[in-house]
Write a structure and sequence with these properties.
disordered N terminus; Calycin; 10 strands; globular; Lipocalin; 11% helix
């Protein structure tokens, strides 16, 4: 695992590059980290998109990852998100959603600890969508960087959007979960 805040590996499965195990913070100054195009492709109303953008602008987005040879686990936390995903590599996972809807997800890797591809098919506000979320670890000088390439395609309209976001090792204590994040209401 990288030492949190340093980005250097020490896990047995790591190579000279290291692993993505650890806690990562969205680098808001790099690329175009906005989820606007992704949310528009899902059919999310403008007001909700603006709230999401404001939340990500004003607060940190944190991803905590545990990656082994057989599982990929991620905890995503921000002002607007509090969700976890635990996938057995190569095994399709079905999630029942409200309204008799189903989301399917499968994670695969060609390089455990350094690259993962998560493919989902899910219902959105305007029909079914296919999502490919690829996370790849790369080294830039002395720093490990986690690059997320997120592509969504609406099956009905054919509309497609790709977002690339960069995460750097998180330094310091984790921030408390905002009361507005999904899943946090009523929790203490």
């Amino acid at each position: 695992m990288p030492t949190i805040g340093v980005g250097e590996p020490d896990a047995p499965m790591s190579s000279a590059l290291g692993t993505m195990n650890g806690t990562w913070r969205l680098d808001k100054l790099r690329g175009k980290p906005s989820m606007r195009g992704y949310l528009e492709t899902m059919g999310v109303p403008e007001l909700a998109i603006e709230a999401h953008e404001k939340g990500e602008e004003d607060h940190e987005t944190i991803h905590t990852i545990e990656f082994s040879d057989s599982h990929f686990k991620i905890k995503k936390q921000s002002r607007v998100t509090d969700m976890g995903l635990d996938l057995k590599l190569g095994e399709e996972c079905l999630a029942n959603l409200p309204g008799d809807r189903v989301k399917t997800t499968i994670a695969t890797t060609e390089n455990p600890g350094q690259q993962v591809k998560i493919v989902s098919r899910m219902p959105t506000m305007n029909g079914m969508a296919n999502v490919v979320d690829t996370k790849t670890l790369q080294r830039e000088g002395n720093l490990l960087v986690l690059v997320q390439t997120l592509t969504i395609k609406n099956e009905l309209s054919g509309k497609e959007h790709t977002t690339t976001r960069y995460f750097v090792p998180h330094e310091g204590a984790l921030i408390p979960l905002a009361a507005t994040a999904k899943g946090s209401v009523g929790k203490k």
